[in-house]
Amino acid sequence: MLAICRGRRKFLAASLTLLCIPAITWIYLFAGSFEDGKPVSLSPLDSQAHSPRYTASSQRERESLEVRVREVEEENRALRRQLSLAQGRGQGHRRGNHSKTYSMEEGTGDSENLRAGIVAGNSSECGQQPVVEKCETIHVAIVCAGYNASRDVVTLVKSVLFHRRNPLHFHLIADSIAEQILATLFQTWMVPAVRVDFYNADELKSEVSWIPNKHYSGIYGLMKLVLTKTLPASLERVIVLDTDITFATDIAELWAVFHKFKGQQVLGLVENQSDWYLGNLWKNHRPWPALGRGYNTGVILLLLDKLRKMKWEQMWRLTAERELMGMLSTSLADQDIFNAVIKQNPFLVYQLPCFWNVQLSDHTRSEQCYRDVSDLKVIHWNSPKKLRVKNKHVEFFRNLYLTFLEYDGNLLRRELFGCPSEADVNSENLQKQLSELDEDDLCYEFRRERFTVHRTHLYFLHYEYEPAADNTDVTLVAQLSMDRLQMLEAICKHWEGPISLALYLSDAEAQQFLRYAQGSEVLMSRHNVGYHIVYKEGQFYPVNLLRNVAMKHISTPYMFLSDIDFLPMYGLYEYLRKSVIQLDLANTKKAMIVPAFETLRYRLSFPKSKAELLSMLDMGTLFTFRYHVWTKGHAPTNFAKWRTATTPYQVEWEADFEPYVVVRRDCPEYDRRFVGFGWNKVAHIMELDAQEYEFIVLPNAYMIHMPHAPSFDITKFRSNKQYRICLKTLKEEFQQDMSRRYGFAALKYLTAENNS
Length: 756
Description:
The chain contains 26 helices and 27 strands. It has a nine-stranded mixed β-sheet with strand order 15-18-17-16-19-25-21-26-24. Strands 7-6-5-8-11-10-12 form a seven-stranded mixed β-sheet. 40% of the residues lie in helices and 15% in strands. It starts with a helix and ends with a helix. It has two domains: 138-407, Alpha-Beta Complex (Spore Coat Polysaccharide Biosynthesis Protein SpsA, Chain A); 456-746, Spore Coat Polysaccharide Biosynthesis Protein SpsA, Chain A, CATH 3.90.550.10. The relative contact order is 0.07. It is elongated. Helix 5 links the parallel strand 5 and strand 6. Keywords: Glycoprotein, Glycosyltransferase, Golgi apparatus, Membrane, Multifunctional enzyme, Signal-anchor, Transferase, Transmembrane, Transmembrane helix.
């Protein structure tokens, strides 16, 4: 409504101006055509013929008057054009709710207009507004490498998805680490009308490795220079973004700016808001050449087709080679080379208004880019300090960033109505599987959980692993939620080998975990722990999905399938590696059992040997695991024999057996139908037995369960009769599936269940 009123006021003002100026003009001309009370002809020829007082001076005055007449007529024509455009906009506002396209804010193409726009509060210019079609695909390119950058990309993508109304195509130039992380993330995110393509950044290193670069982004900070070669030849235009960008508006508004490019303009950039390129930051500061303040390359609009025709590749290479002879290296990576090219070829640039890249590094002019927070479009955290940067509005910017950082990404899985989506095989299969379920089934929610696709972010923190030369390495595998976070430091102290953990967290909890981990000296000193975030969705704890995620992403030939509440004995890692060789796990189907014990005390002097543990058993400080509530779970381990055993011994499978085992990485996965509490490990051990694994108890190994409050799922199991009924139903269905898969050999599981 406000926009309509403003349009009407502009229309009225223009109308009055159009009516008044001609009248005033002709009154002025009429009055000026009298001299000494007598009319004077406007024609010099007429004056010469009829006036004896004609002089050179009066001729100049009349010529000046004729010029003024032509100027007034030109102003009239300009006002008519403006009035016509104002009428068009007024009609556009009235039918705006029915339009299939939407208009974008007008940008500026030169620094004078840019400064005027800042003073005026970034108001739009008069003129035809560019448009983006409703279902037009917007292409975005991002260079991403490593674990930390992968996290940053997720926050950037969230901010773009939150505001977007168009299909998106992300072009990610990524190293092998970022590709693995982000490919899994987008595959499990399943956002409609979003396509993601990856380009191998490692293959591009040779294109830019000859350029010395002092910037913290390293070699990957130069790869935006080769996008014309890297991206598909059919792609004509693309928005290029740094990973430390946050959008505060629909990215389609920025895409629309491409329509304003004229002539040979092929780069859309915002002026650099620091004094870096002015060369006055410190004594002997010598930056790369730039036009004025230079341009920041955190946000770039690239007209790829025109750049290719201009031979951009040759242009930037020649410039870089020439400047490097004197500069020796770049300080700001690709930005230095872009600016050097622009210095020589200023016609290449369309200057974007600075609210398209508000640069929050120290000592910038970013505060001049907006008069109100509603003016903001794109925030760029381009300081190494990131959220700790100095700015009088930094709290607002930080809160905006944290909003997207902790925003539930599942809420962004929304359809773009009216826009056809590309066929997604995974999505179609999921819908088919869900449609086959009976929603009236009392166990529908249990069955549905089996098919739920949980968004997954692998390697949330930096991970390094050096394979063991003897090929005997073992990874501890476990899963946890936020309420078990305090166990991580203790496990890391007890187990020095690699660890693979699946954490079931919300987006906000993932950030709490990140802060917890970064504040822990113990966790930060360990780089061989893989943290894989599985984001919360649904009402059940997907325990077996979490185990499968952790199992799938180990780097060792063997794995110790544990739970987060257990502390392994000191030295267990090395003991298991020796046992792998002793029992020839590489060539046999064996599951090595680590006997499980428990304490009811929150403070425990952890036993340093088997003898000390046996003493604590005798004193009642320790117990065999769950002996008082679920004896069958670990009874086949035969603890009486273990007390005196000095060599490994074999035990037979029994109903409800659920020991903690060490197996090869190619063992079967856990069955996803079991969620929450009950039968999740039992079913897996049954599957191992069906595949003819031998169960071998290790005589000098042990683990101890630490006390904790009951989980939400075990509380539901104990209090909800329908929960127990559904679990029994799922058990029966699993046993039937076992019979179908393993035939006659699986009959013993039905018999054992009936006898138990």
